[in-house]
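queue> pop job 88
queue> type: inverse folding (structure -> sequence)
queue> payload:
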């Protein structure tokens, strides 16, 4: 069975070349640069290595283990969503969002999700399996090639697609390490944002690693009763524990933490709720990233209107809590936050 090249470190590629293919070690750098710098993935593109070695490589490795099977573009042409099929016929979705000077990828770390957040389409579909580091990396490489053809580059990556990144911690961090390595894709660690529903032990572990990668916490409620209704994980890791872990993260790293808040009309968008949120976050180096709820089939509530959204923001800012209202992108193709799900049989 072929191995996914993107699952391997440079050292592993080098060892396999020497020990299994009886090739000189220097070939590893040629292959590595071809893949990560030149963005090659077709056999004929590797013209810097002998044809015989190319044939050996294609017998031993997969250079494309995820296959794009459906593409959707938003009406404004600013958002593109790709449905990828994996080798075992599971599927994932990945989104490219274009802004003025940014090309942001929203990538998946799992097929489905085990967290069960009721307002999230991925949570509604359930958990299928973890992605390997290579499958996470491949989503980025696919869009890096697309953007290269347009004389553009990936500028930011948010791990907010399908799945809970901290539930698949090792593969997620391996992918970030490789994509941020100067010898890999070379995207700086601060260009990445990892979003979690609040897996407390992993927040603390992440803090101990003292990474430059940005951290975002999906919060969405200020008391345990309401948050547990929206996010079942809150039963195991209640708000108090999440906040203690967040304080630990800020103390250890001195980095600002982002709290994500889906504004749900009549449920968590009142000025009182905003005041309660400000009280909860007081004294913490943080920022609130609010976005009107994106619609999903199995959640009956609606997004907050513009007037209420602005009121919510003003209360936070009056209390010294920075708050931005995020643009809703790709809603017409179900590519917005919380909308990613697979609707075709596997």
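queue> result:
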């Amino acid at each position: 069975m072929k191995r996914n090249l993107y699952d391997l470190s440079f050292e592993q590629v080098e060892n396999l070349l020497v020990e299994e293919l009886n090739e000189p070690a220097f070939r590893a750098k040629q292959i590595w640069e071809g893949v990560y710098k030149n963005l090659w993935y077709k056999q004929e593109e590797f013209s810097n290595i002998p044809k015989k070695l190319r044939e050996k490589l294609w017998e031993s490795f997969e250079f494309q283990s995820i296959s794009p099977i459906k593409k959707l573009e938003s009406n404004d042409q600013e958002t593109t969503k790709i449905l990828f099929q994996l080798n075992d016929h599971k599927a994932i979705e990945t989104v490219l969002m274009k802004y003025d000077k940014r090309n942001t990828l929203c990538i998946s770390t799992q097929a489905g999700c085990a967290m069960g957040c009721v307002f999230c389409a991925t949570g509604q579909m359930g958990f299928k399996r973890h992605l390997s580091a290579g499958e996470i990396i491949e989503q980025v490489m696919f869009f890096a090639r697309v953007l290269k053809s347009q004389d553009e580059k990936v500028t930011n990556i948010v791990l907010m697609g399908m799945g809970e990144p901290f539930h698949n911690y090792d593969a997620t961090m391996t992918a970030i390490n490789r994509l941020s390595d100067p010898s890999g894709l070379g995207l700086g660690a601060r260009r990445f944002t990892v979003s979690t529903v609040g897996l407390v032990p992993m927040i603390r572990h992440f803090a101990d690693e003292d990474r430059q990668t940005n951290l975002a916490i999906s919060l969405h409620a200020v008391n345990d009763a309401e948050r547990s209704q929206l996010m079942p994980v809150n039963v195991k890791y209640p708000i108090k524990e999440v906040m203690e872990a967040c304080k630990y993260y800020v103390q250890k790293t001195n980095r600002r933490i982002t709290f994500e808040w889906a504004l749900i009309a009549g449920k968590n968008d009142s000025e009182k709720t905003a005041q309660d949120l400000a009280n909860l976050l007081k004294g913490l180096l943080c920022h609130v990233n609010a976005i009107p709820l994106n619609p999903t089939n199995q959640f009956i509530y609606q997004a907050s209107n513009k007037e209420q959204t602005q009121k919510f923001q003003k209360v936070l800012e009056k209390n010294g809590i920075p708050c931005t209202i995020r643009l809703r992108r790709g809603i017409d193709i179900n590519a917005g936050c919380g909308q990613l799900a697979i609707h075709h049989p596997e």
